[in-house]
């Protein structure tokens, strides 16, 4: 799977090697993607949004559905809502799919409180502790 012309992760991801924070577009991101692709930082090389991990449906590509989803752990998926891009029905179906597969979901939206969607059988306190690791990653 390829990104195509989607560059959402260049804004919504944290890149520690470049001291790039979430919600700020990377200075290396140009119209056609990363200007140093192939020499880009390790964290960028290792990051795969949920679309890249198994996306066969172009409607779930972040720039198309309004949310960049990624797997945080064996129990948590995260989703960052793209400012100014409406969340599609397909993205909402993906949220329901994650829950039905046994994943809890943490949704981020710039300037707003986090939204938790707990999967059945997940201990809210345990999931919240796992979420603390997101704080250390710089996503909040």
Could you please describe the fold and organization of this structure?
- The chain has 6 helices and 6 strands; from the N terminus they run αββαααββαββα.
- The protein is an alpha+beta fold and 140 residues long.
- The chain has one domain.
- It has a 4-stranded mixed beta sheet with strand order 3-4-5-6, with helices on both faces. A two-stranded antiparallel sheet has the order 1-2.
- It is globular.
Compact summary:
This protein is α+β, with helices and mostly antiparallel strands and 140 residues long.
From the helix content, strand content and strand pairing, which structural class follows?
alpha+beta
Which overall shape is indicated by the principal axes computed on the Cα atoms?
Answer: globular
The protein's oligomeric status is: single chain
Q: Approximately what portion of the residues adopt beta-strand conformation? A: 15-25%
Largest sheet at a glance?
A: 4 strands, mixed
Across the major sheet, the strand order is 3-4-5-6
Distance between the termini: 28 Å
Number of domains: 1
> What is the helical fraction, as a range of percent?
25-40%
Q: Strand-and-helix sequence, N→C?
A: HEEHHHEEHEEH
Give the integer mean of the pLDDT values. Answer: 87
Count of runs of 4 or more consecutive helical residues: 6
What Rg is obtained from the alpha carbons, in whole angstroms?
15 Å
């Amino acid at each position: 799977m390829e990104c195509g012309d989607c560059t959402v992760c260049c804004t919504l991801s944290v890149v520690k090697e470049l001291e790039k924070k979430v919600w700020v577009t990377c200075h290396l991101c140009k119209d056609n993607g990363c200007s140093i692709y192939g020499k880009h930082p390790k964290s960028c090389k290792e990051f795969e949004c949920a679309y890249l991990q198994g996306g066969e449906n172009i409607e779930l590509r972040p720039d198309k559905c309004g949310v960049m989803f990624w797997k945080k752990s064996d129990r948590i998926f995260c989703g960052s809502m793209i400012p100014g891009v409406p969340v599609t029905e397909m993205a909402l179906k993906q949220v329901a799919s994650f829950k039905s597969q046994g994943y809890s979901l943490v949704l981020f939206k710039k300037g707003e409180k986090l939204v938790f969607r707990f999967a059945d059988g997940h201990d809210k306190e345990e999931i919240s502790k796992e979420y603390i690791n997101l704080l250390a990653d710089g996503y909040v």
